[in-house]
Design a protein that fits this description.
Elements lengths: L2 H8 L4 E3 L2 H6 L6 H8 L10 E4 L3 H14 L2 E5 L15 E5 L6 E4 L4 E4 L5 H10 L2 E2 L12 H7 L6 H4 L6 E8 L4 E5 L8 H4 L7 E9 L1 E2 L3 E9 L2 H13 L6 E5 L1 H9 L12 H15 L2 H11 L7 E9 L1 H17 L3 E4 L1 H8 L8 H6 L2 E11 H16 L3 E9 L3 E11 L3 H21 L15 H8 L2 H12 L32 E2 L4 E5 L4 H9 L3 E2 L10 H6 L17 E8 L4 E4 L23 E9 L1 E2 L20 H14 L1
């Protein structure tokens, strides 16, 4: 078959290419393991059949129908900045570059924006700011990532401490399912909310055609602060107290001693390359590779120097909003930091960080040019498990690579840890083996420590081998979701989990909670589904805690969740808080679905959507880990949004929901 001619016939007016340069260029994302293949002289290992550039939802429908009839696969592509291998096409794949679908319309009354998936982050944000608004989503990859990519990966931006992650910003999403059907999914609380299933699905359930995102007014002012803590543990304790006291710094970043030392030395250089003798450059490259070949000794030296030669941990805070509020909240945070043993560094480090906040996405290439490799790993856990998670993953990585870490996404119930690591070996194949060993060890350590495998980068092929250890039977649930919306297996096959993978055994992932357990450190409490809200509130009151409901009555916890958590604080007003951190549900097929508590996660579709507001159509909650508050604690400042809270369920949306109910029955 002449694929170009066939596609052009099926998609009149759509640009199509099967040229070798295009097929190589679209054969991967920025997964560092593939960069090692490129350095080893193996570029474009998995080249697609063709690349297409649709302009409309109608083009996507025609393309999907073509793929079904021809047995082709579809791999959505935004800007290719993903780092987990979600883009890894086969010879039967058509890569769908969505960047021509970038138009938008802004509604200042809500405020919100309706936008195509191919809109580039920085360009869209600049356009929105000219109208007096901000999306509030600032990933470090904003210069080279798209709206569709943000949603598909369940991404996070640097201002998540105020505005939340991308899942907190999406009001609705238009999708083209693997059947070719178009469906508009809308966020709601009192009925089926299928939006969380698309967010984080990484192209496996559908192609995202449009999205409606809530907006915020451009902040009138910012307040900056920075602190030095004796160690990273005292720093994250201060961070915990800030968020649990209702503070919402847009930016809150805590760097461990080695990362702090690098930051102080001035890691952001002029873009102008300094020229010097080639022999000196080669010697430096050789020295760096040699040091990285002994990571265990290097990490031991660094650990011994922490708190002495290297100094302590550095915290950077940025508050934004109305002038008086931003300043007052920064003062409150400064007091908490001081009481936790911090020394003020003034505004300077925070302002410097803010000025160079996107540069981290462009520091990887020099490491690879030196003959070494680098990567990042972001995990998350409740506050009570954060120390165990930090120590376990750091030790696991430290056997193979140089490792450093910072915390950059905090919540009332927990935090994300972002590890950066680098290594080297004598050959490219040996480097790949070391890279794989580091990832295997680190992912296993994260699972054993009770963390989630990903906070905002997603899964792709990078973390897929260990995903079953976190999700348990949830892996089978994800496969059934794929079957429900994409029965022919067109959509990014092989990503997240193979369609034909072995069914998981009934052994379940490590359960980090017990019924009746109250984690006061993380402000989480676990209750059986048959406990009434009144009984739960009474048990919490004895500890000075509360669910924060206006009138907790005799409704059972399981029925309350099935009804959509009525009475909780409006999620649009405080996007950072989440009422349900984890749960165990008995599905109607008899299997148990367990989602471990985590402040946020990016491990595929959010399976909580199958129980919250779902009317027990799929199963019944047996235990739930709920967010609680200290009685009398101040609430976070409200963010305004007048968009619809509980829109009616459309016919196509209802049909999509029934497909899921049938697949999971």
């Amino acid at each position: 078959m002449d694929v170009v001619r066939a596609l052009e016939s099926a998609l009149p007016g759509v640009t199509v290419s099967a040229s070798s340069p295009d097929r190589v260029a679209y054969s991967r994302d920025l997964w560092p393991r593939r960069l090692l293949d490129v350095r080893a002289g193996r570029p474009g290992v998995h080249q697609p059949l063709a690349v297409v550039w649709p302009r409309s939802t109608e083009d996507l429908v025609r393309l999907t129908r073509f793929a079904r009839s021809e047995g082709a696969a579809l791999v959505p592509f935004g800007a290719g900045s993903g780092v987990c291998g979600a883009v890894d096409p086969s010879a039967r794949s058509i890569v769908v570059d969505l960047k021509k679908m970038r138009d938008f319309s802004l509604d200042p009354s809500e405020p919100s924006i309706d936008v195509g998936p191919g809109a580039m982050g920085i360009t869209l944000e600049e356009d929105v700011q000219r109208a007096g608004f901000t999306i509030g989503h600032f990933p470090s990859s904003i210069l080279c990532s798209t709206v569709g990519g943000w949603i598909a990966a369940r991404g996070a931006g640097q201002c998540s401490g105020l505005y939340g992650k991308i899942e907190d910003m999406v009001a609705s999403v238009d999708c083209v399912l693997g059947t070719g059907d178009v469906v508009t999914l809308k966020r709601r609380f009192d009925g089926p909310n299928l939006v969380p299933l698309v967010i984080g699905s990484e192209g496996t359930l559908c192609t995202i055609a449009r999205a409606k995102l809530r907006l915020h007014p451009v902040p009138a002012a910012r307040s900056y602060a920075a602190f030095s803590f004796p160690d990273i543990e005292s720093g994250w304790e201060a961070l915990r107290l800030m968020f649990q006291a209702g503070l919402r710094p847009a930016v809150s970043r805590l760097y461990d001693p080695i990362d702090s030392a690098i930051m102080k030395s001035g890691s952001v250089r002029s873009g102008r390359k300094k020229r010097g003798p080639k022999t000196a450059s080669a010697s430096l490259s050789s020295l760096a590779r040699g040091i990285l070949r002994v990571p265990r000794a290097l990490n031991a030296v660094i650990q011994a120097a922490e708190g002495n030669l290297l100094g302590g941990a550095t915290m950077v805070l940025v508050f934004e909003g109305e002038s008086g509020a931003a300043h007052a909240d920064c003062e409150r945070a400064s007091l908490i930091a001081s009481q936790a043993g911090a020394r003020s560094l003034g505004e300077g480090p925070a302002r410097k960080w803010f000025a160079h906040r996107y540069s981290v996405s462009y520091r990887q290439a020099p490491v690879f040019r030196l003959g070494a490799f680098s990567d990042t790993m972001e995990v998350a856990a409740p506050w009570s498990k954060l120390g165990t998670l930090y120590d376990a993953v750091r030790a696991a990585l430290g056997e193979h690579v140089l490792v450093m870490a910072h915390l950059s996404h905090a919540y009332p119930d927990g935090c994300s840890i972002y590890f950066t690591f680098s290594g080297a070996a004598d050959t490219d194949d040996a480097a790949i083996a070391k890279y794989d060993a580091a990832w295997r060890s680190a992912l296993g350590a994260a699972i054993e420590a009770g963390g989630t495998l990903s906070h905002h980068h997603g899964v792709g092929r990078s973390k897929a081998p260990r995903l079953g250890e976190e999700l348990g039977y949830g892996i089978e649930v994800v496969r059934r979701l794929m079957t429900a919306w994409d029965p022919d297996g067109l959509m990014n096959p092989g990503n997240l989990t193979p369609r034909d993978g072995a069914s998981p055994r009934d052994t379940e992932p490590i359960s980090p909670f017990l019924p009746g357990e109250v984690d006061e450190h993380s402000l989480l409490a676990t209750f059986a589904g048959d406990v009434t809200l009144a009984a739960a509130e009474s048990a919490l009151a004895a500890r000075g805690l509360t669910l924060g409901l206006a009138a907790p009555g005799q409704t059972r916890v399981d029925a309350w969740i099935a009804a959509g958590l009525p009475g909780v604080r409006d999620a649009w007003s405080d996007p950072v808080a989440q009422p349900l951190a984890g749960f165990s549900a008995r599905l109607h097929d008899g299997h148990r679905l367990l989602v471990r508590p985590a402040p946020r996660r990016a491990v595929g579709p959010d399976l909580a959507a199958l129980v919250i507001g779902a009317g027990e159509r799929v199963g019944r909650v047996e235990h739930a880990t709920l967010a609680v508050q200290r009685r009398g604690a101040p609430a976070a400042r409200e963010l305004g949004f007048t968009g619809e809270r509980n829109p009616p369920v459309g016919a196509a949306e209802s049909a999509a929901w029934e497909r899921i109910v049938s697949a999971l029955g």
